[in-house]
Structure formats: C-alpha cells, structure tokens
Design brief:
By secondary structure, the chain is of the alpha+beta class. Helices cover about 35% and strands about 20% of the residues. It has 12 helices and 12 strands. It has helices spanning about 25-30, 45-50, 60-70, 80-95, 130-160, 180-190, 225-230, 235, 265-270, 305-315, 370-395, 400-410; strands at about 10-20, 35-45, 100-105, 120-125, 165-170, 195-200, 210-220, 275-280, 280-285, 320-330, 335-345, 355-360. Strands 1-2-3-4 form a 4-stranded antiparallel beta sheet. Helix 3 (about 60-70) runs antiparallel to helix 4. The longest helix is centred in the middle third of the chain and has 31 residues, at about 130-160.
C-alpha cells in the first residue's frame, strides 16, 4: 500500500502530544532532558465503528497516547529518527488493524549556536498486508493437497492390488547338521556337495500373467564405495579394450596373470542360484527377456546367457534389494501349489544375509510398494495442515507475519534497518 493510496482513507489524528524525554546525542540532552512534541496519524478502517458506535471496532486514541508517552519518557535514544520508529513499530505491534502510521517528532530546543524555528523528523510507515499472501499460500497448499491425496489413494490401492508371494529359502535349503555359521559356510563352499533344494509355495490369490520372478537379498551392501568402483566400463564397452582391468581390484587377473573378463567385484559376485517352477506335472518355468535400458535399443531384447549379469551389474542403492530373475507367462490361481526346484549356490552365510524368492504381479506403478502412496499421503496431509494453519493464523490475526517481523526489529532495534523501508 503506497502513501498516495491513503490520502482519502480513514485515520485517527493526534496532534501536539508533549512529553519530557532524555533523547539526543549531547550529554546535557541525556542528563537534563527536554520537551518533545509529537503528532501521530494512524490509518485504519473506521466504517464499522461509525455504524456500531462501539469502541471495540476502532482503536482508542488513549492507547496511542500511552504508546507515545512510554516511548518518549522511556529509555534514551540518540536520534529523533529512533524515537519516531519506536512509536510507529509499537503501534503496529499492538494494533493489527492499523495499516499505516505517520509520526512527527519535534524538538523545540536545539543544541546549536544559531536560529532554527523548528527541528524534527517525520516518518511514514505502512504495513505490507499478509492477507493476499496468506490467501495465496492457503490456496497453493490446498491445491497441492487436492493433487497429492488422490494420487496417494490411487497409488496405495494399486500397490495393494498387486499379488505377491515371498519365500525365504536360505535357511531351509541347508543340511540338518549345518547349525552354525561355520558349518553353513563350509557347506556352501564345498563344490562337491549337492545344492539342490525343493520348495513348495501356495498361491494366496489369483495371479494374472505376466508373473515376475525376483530374488531378494538382505544385508548385501552393493552400494559400498569399493564394491561399486570395482569394474571397468571400457572393458565392457569396447572389444579392443577387453584386456583393460584398471579399477577392478581385487578381481582383475587370474593366478597366471591373464585378465579377467568381465573384471571386478561386481561381476565376480554374480548371483548364481537357479530356479525352475512346476504346477503339478505342468512345467511353468519361463525366463524373461530383460529390458536393457543401458543400451541404445528401442525395445526389449534377450541377451541369452548374459541377461542375469546385466541385471546384476545395476548396483542397488539399499542393502535389501530385489532383482528380476525371470517371469512366468501363465496365470496362477488361488490355492495353486507351486513346486520350486532350486540350486542353493550363492553364499549369503558369510555376511549373515538372507535369500528370498518373490513371485509378483505388476501394476502401472511397478510391483508392490506402499512407500509411494504413503509419501504422497504425508505430503498431501502436510499441505492440508499448512493450509489450515495459514487460514487460522489469518482469521485470528491477519498480520501475524508482519507483527512478528516488527517484534524482532523492536527487540533488535537498529534504525539503519529502516532506511530502505
């Protein structure tokens, strides 16, 4: 609100307020004090008071009088500018309905050798209303909430419509005498030991094809810096550089010095458990063609025996992760019993890891994952809360933001701050 816009607006006028104060730069001014003359104009809407004839609908001039008196007779200030600013700020702090204040502070007696008819300062301060800002904030947060909450509902319902069957088999596919960690490690590292294992799972709900098969590893930190760096992309990209093994420590060469292809810890630790599936006498096993997003191909393509390796080389960000192993292209019905013949080859016992087999349908947001829906719910709920908060703040005290700012300035008062106001 500019000063020119207030010319014809309602205001309270107080003229010729006189108080004795101890303001000034000179020592004698602070010691002896002198009389100050103050004029105050306070702009506010007086229409309601004019209709109701009720003091509650306006600001009592006696309250403004007391503010001026307390400031002038209060702690000493060096400058008249400071006195005027304190009067204006205190008026704003106490009366949120006042939109602008003009304060004129005059000092009849001037500590100079010469003739001066009048010395004083006049300041004009207007409040930048937060009404429009509050409305904008409220509308923005409300709209965000309206957007996020339906997305949350759709995401959560879609996620929970995904059918998922999980079977942990690392502890089940061990000999009976492998009761401690050392025995488990000895079993898994013995190449002559039969690692075949048979598991049965029961389908809990109808699962429509395609049904994706994942293996899940727990407590496996593929995101470890040394692990992630242990690879050579040039070796994988260019046949002429197949012998390059830089950055592949500790798996870069064989015992006789020949380069390992592909080299590095990631390739060396490739997951090598295998699975086959049957429903009664019907074989339902089918390996999937993996979507190769890292290559410039317009569609999915099969990379024969290397598709498992391509998936494995995409390191996971979290210690618990799933990687696509294949897919079943037949519908499974509720209560179907699926027999899984697997080879328990991969050593997770060394690091107390877990292995799980996951059968899952998919939706437009992927597999079963409530996190996305809960995240949208949290953001949407926060937006609605903030919209309600700003609405309440505006209804209770329309200019709360401005008043808090003025309070800070009053407590940490520095007249130079107001030079740009």
């Amino acid at each position: 609100m500019a000063g020119s816009e207030l010319v014809d607006q309602d205001k309270l006028i107080l003229r010729g307020l006189k108080f004795h104060g101890f303001h000034g730069v000179k020592p004698e001014e602070k010691k002896l004090g002198q009389k100050f003359v103050i004029d105050v104009d306070a702009w506010l809407d007086l229409r309601a008071a004019g209709v109701s004839d009720d003091i509650a609908d306006t600001v009592s001039y006696t309250d403004i009088y007391r503010i001026v008196k307390d400031v002038v007779e209060g702690p000493s200030q060096n400058l008249l500018e400071s006195v005027a600013h304190l009067i204006a700020n205190t008026t704003f702090l106490k009366f949120s309905q006042i939109s602008a204040v003009r304060v004129k502070v005059g000092k009849p007696h001037v500590a100079v050798h010469g003739t001066i008819d009048y010395l004083g300062v006049e300041i004009f301060r207007f409040k930048i209303y937060t009404a429009g800002t509050s409305s904008l904030q409220t509308n923005s947060y409300s709209k965000m909430g309206v957007i996020f909450i339906p997305i949350r509902v759709a995401s959560l319902l879609t996620s929970r419509a995904v059918v998922e069957v999980v079977d942990r088999y690392d502890n089940a596919c061990l000999p009976s005498n492998a009761t401690n960690k050392d025995a488990k490690i000895a079993y898994i590292q013995n190449r002559d030991t039969n690692k075949n294992c048979t598991r049965t799972i029961t389908i809990t709900k109808d699962m429509n094809q395609p049904i994706y098969v994942y293996y899940q590893l727990d407590n496996f930190y593929q995101n470890h810096r040394r692990y992630v760096k242990s690879r050579n992309d040039q070796q994988l990209r260019d046949k002429s550089k197949v012998n390059e093994t830089d950055y592949c420590d500790p798996e870069k060469t064989t015992a006789d010095g020949k380069p390992i292809v592909p080299c590095g810890l990631i390739a060396w630790s490739l997951f090598n458990d295998t699975y086959s599936f049957a429903r009664g006498s019907e074989n339902i096993n089918s390996r999937a063609c993996v979507q190769v997003t890292t290559q410039n191909k317009p569609r999915s393509m099969c990379l024969s025996q290397q598709e498992d390796w391509i998936v494995w080389m995409r390191t996971a960000a979290l210690p618990t992760f799933r990687k696509l192993w294949g897919k079943i292209e037949k519908d499974l019905k509720a209560n179907d019993v699926i027999t899984i013949n697997l080879e328990n080859n991969y050593n997770t016992y060394e690091f107390n890891g877990k292995k799980k087999l996951v059968l899952s349908t998919a939706s437009w947001i992927g597999g079963k994952n409530d996190f996305l829906g809960l995240a949208y719910l949290s953001v949407g709920g926060l937006c609605f809360f903030l919209a309600l908060l700003f609405t309440l703040l505006y209804l209770i005290k329309p200019s709360t933001t401005v008043l808090l700012t003025l309070l800070f300035l009053a407590v940490n008062f520095d007249p130079a701050i107001f030079d740009a106001v």
